[in-house]
Amino acid sequence: MKLTRFLQRLNSETVTVELKNGTVIHGTVNGVDMSMNTHLKKVKVTVKGKNPVSYDTLSVRGNTIRLFILPDGLNLDALLVEDKLQKVQSTAPGSQPTGPMAGGRGRGRGRGRGRGRGR
């Protein structure tokens, strides 16, 4: 399971996030996207060497995060269980790929106009 998928399951959990610059953020997870950008509510931010500041909501860019400190009472076994039904469906033999570019025409630079008469 990818780390971002795991973090997305932490909705409404109170966590502590440490940033690469030493800032410590303590708040409740509101959401995490695939870039690991983390959206928190009821936040207390402690910048290194300064007094804590409280915010209602805060978004943290994913590449500035050093680590997450999870609560002690968190049931990791339940969070780490993958959706097996979804995996079985996606790896079924004979299944067709889905999405906007599933069928073809993947030539890279678009089709555009022709190249003239070919002389």
UniProtKB/TrEMBL annotation:
<dbReference type="GO" id="GO:0000387">
    <property type="term" value="P:spliceosomal snRNP assembly"/>
</dbReference>
<dbReference type="GO" id="GO:1990904">
    <property type="term" value="C:ribonucleoprotein complex"/>
</dbReference>
<comment type="function">
    <text>Involved in splicing regulation. Facilitates post-transcriptional gene silencing (PTGS) by limiting the degradation of transgene aberrant RNAs by the RNA quality control (RQC) machinery, thus favoring their entry into cytoplasmic siRNA bodies where they can trigger PTGS. Does not participate in the production of small RNAs.</text>
</comment>
<keyword id="KW-0508">mRNA splicing</keyword>
<keyword id="KW-0687">Ribonucleoprotein</keyword>
<dbReference type="InterPro" id="IPR047575">
    <property type="entry name" value="Sm"/>
</dbReference>
<comment type="similarity">
    <text>Belongs to the snRNP core protein family.</text>
</comment>
<feature type="domain" description="Sm">
    <location>
        <begin position="2"/>
        <end position="74"/>
    </location>
</feature>
<dbReference type="InterPro" id="IPR001163">
    <property type="entry name" value="Sm_dom_euk/arc"/>
</dbReference>
<dbReference type="InterPro" id="IPR034102">
    <property type="entry name" value="Sm_D1"/>
</dbReference>
<dbReference type="Pfam" id="PF01423">
    <property type="entry name" value="LSM"/>
</dbReference>
<dbReference type="GO" id="GO:0003723">
    <property type="term" value="F:RNA binding"/>
</dbReference>
<comment type="function">
    <text>Essential for pre-mRNA splicing. Implicated in the formation of stable, biologically active snRNP structures.</text>
</comment>
<feature type="compositionally biased region" description="Polar residues">
    <location>
        <begin position="88"/>
        <end position="98"/>
    </location>
</feature>
<dbReference type="GO" id="GO:0010468">
    <property type="term" value="P:regulation of gene expression"/>
</dbReference>
<dbReference type="GO" id="GO:0031981">
    <property type="term" value="C:nuclear lumen"/>
</dbReference>
<protein>
    <recommendedName>
        <fullName>Small nuclear ribonucleoprotein Sm D1</fullName>
    </recommendedName>
</protein>
<feature type="compositionally biased region" description="Basic residues">
    <location>
        <begin position="106"/>
        <end position="119"/>
    </location>
</feature>
<keyword id="KW-0507">mRNA processing</keyword>
<feature type="region of interest" description="Disordered">
    <location>
        <begin position="88"/>
        <end position="119"/>
    </location>
</feature>
<dbReference type="InterPro" id="IPR027141">
    <property type="entry name" value="LSm4/Sm_D1/D3"/>
</dbReference>
<keyword id="KW-0677">Repeat</keyword>
<dbReference type="InterPro" id="IPR010920">
    <property type="entry name" value="LSM_dom_sf"/>
</dbReference>
<keyword id="KW-0539">Nucleus</keyword>
